[in-house]
Write a structure and sequence with these properties.
The chain is of the alpha+beta class. It is built from 13 helices and 14 strands. It has a 4-stranded antiparallel β-sheet with strand order 2-3-1-4. The chain starts with a helix and ends with a helix.
Length: 420
């Protein structure tokens, strides 16, 4: 069969050249189209459910949040396992699906079941789905370098400007903020004054909530002009909270400032982020969406950062803490170096021992075509170009070179014997 294939190829050289040209063009396309990452993604096919109920102990979170969720998620089809973790004020449920399940089909099924499980949870406790990424989705970390700004200002800048801008990048699932202080208005109530004025604590909470609200009215027409009536009541400064009335005693209003101290502070933190021993930092983690090309997403994020920097306050700069594209580029360069070195060695060896340039070209073309065919197969089977797959290609080239040299040397010897 092999001899017949060789005879057919020799008789139809033009067809063979056209096939080789087509394989080369398709191979180059596959090289550019194949997903590129540093390491293979071996993480499980999972959907994460996050629930926050701040101030509650891990045992309460386990009994009132985690257990009801896990119990009602058991009936979803194609589930391998469900894992959960309860901690102070937070609950995490990890729904592990079978490997062949589409991730977005899985997220839809989980969301449908959450709508049913919601009624079993405490009031105002709302579970949310985690980002549609994997355990290797953390592709880019950055911090904000700004010696003249405090941590609260940097965290507000990260949460309300940088985060929203980077989330618009194609392929980005989420930008997770870390470090700093999340600003909040804090009302420190004096319990003795609360008792003296006989004001229940819940009344204070309700008054603050009711006085932080905008209300709408109707359109008012006057002199052929229409005016939209609305009441502006959102809190914009500490004084607005201090002046909120609670009750009236003898025609004298008792305000928040009479029973409490209002201040601007930071939300309760469970940890800090520190970088290279230089102190606490504020930054973000860019999480890649499931199935995206890591290198392309990182390049788009870097381009977006250049635009975001134009709107930053003076003195604030980005500092890259982790960039996976460096490892990706090093992986690609390793394969390039291996291919080039093997081509050079083969060419030198064949030319020295056979003194035949065309024989060296045969092996070199075979090496290049084999690499292109490997990328075609990787594109077909959705295998990313990573350190494992590219290492396999490099090792296969070594075996291919040995066979190519032997076959070429044997062919040259046979032709020489026939000539003699």
């Amino acid at each position: 069969m092999i001899s017949n294939l060789i005879k057919w190829a020799l008789k139809n050289r033009m067809v063979v050249l056209l096939i080789a040209a087509g394989v080369t063009a398709y191979g180059i396309y596959s090289v550019n189209n194949t997903k590129v990452d540093a390491i293979p993604d071996l993480s499980e096919n999972q959907v994460i459910i996050f629930t926050e109920w701040m101030g509650r102990s891990p045992q309460i979170m386990e009994d009132q949040v985690t257990y009801p969720l896990v119990s009602n998620l058991q009936g979803i089809p194609k589930i391998k396992n469900i894992r959960a973790n309860s901690m102070f004020g937070m609950s995490f449920v990890f729904v592990i699906f079978e490997d062949d399940v589409d991730i977005y089909w899985a997220r839809t099924r989980v969301l449908e079941r959450l709508n049913y499980a919601q009624r079993l949870l405490p009031q105002n406790v709302v579970p949310t789905l985690g980002p549609d990424g994997t355990g290797l989705g953390h592709i880019f970390w950055y911090t904000l370098d700004a010696p003249s700004h405090d941590l609260g200002e940097l965290r507000a800048l990260q949460d309300w400007y940088i985060k929203f801008a980077l989330q618009t990048v194609s392929g980005v699932s989420e930008v997770a903020s870390f470090g700093g202080f999340q600003k909040q208005y804090q009302i420190v109530i004096d319990p003795h004054k609360l008792t003296y004025y006989n004001i229940p604590l819940m009344d204070v909470i309700e008054k603050v909530r009711a006085n932080n609200n905008d209300v709408g009215g109707r359109k008012f027409e006057m002199a052929d002009m229409g005016y939209i009536i609305r009441g502006i009541g959102y809190i914009t400064q500490i004084k607005d909270i201090e002046e909120i009335p609670l009750i009236t005693q003898g025609s004298v209003p008792i305000r928040i400032k009479d029973i409490a101290t209002v201040q601007m502070g930071g939300e309760l933190r469970l940890g800090i982020i520190e970088e290279n021993g230089e102190g606490e930092k504020v930054g973000g983690i860019v999480i890649m969406r499931y199935g995206e090309n890591a290198k392309n997403v990182i390049d788009k994020v870097k381009e977006k950062i250049k635009d975001v920097e134009k709107g930053l306050p003076p003195g604030v700069k980005f500092h890259v803490a982790y960039d996976r594209s460096d490892l990706i580029q090093a992986t690609i360069e390793t394969l390039k170096k291996a291919v080039i070195e093997e081509i050079i060695v083969v060419a030198i060896v064949l030319f020295i021992f056979l003194l035949h340039v065309r024989s060296a070209l045969v092996v070199i073309i075979t090496i290049l075509m084999s690499v292109l065919i490997s990328f075609i197969m990787m594109d077909w089977f959705n295998v990313s170009s990573n350190i494992m797959s590219l290492a396999g290609v490099a090792l296969a080239i070594g075996d291919l070179v040995d066979a190519g040299i032997v076959m070429v040397e044997n062919a040259v010897k046979s032709i020489s014997d026939d000539t003699d």
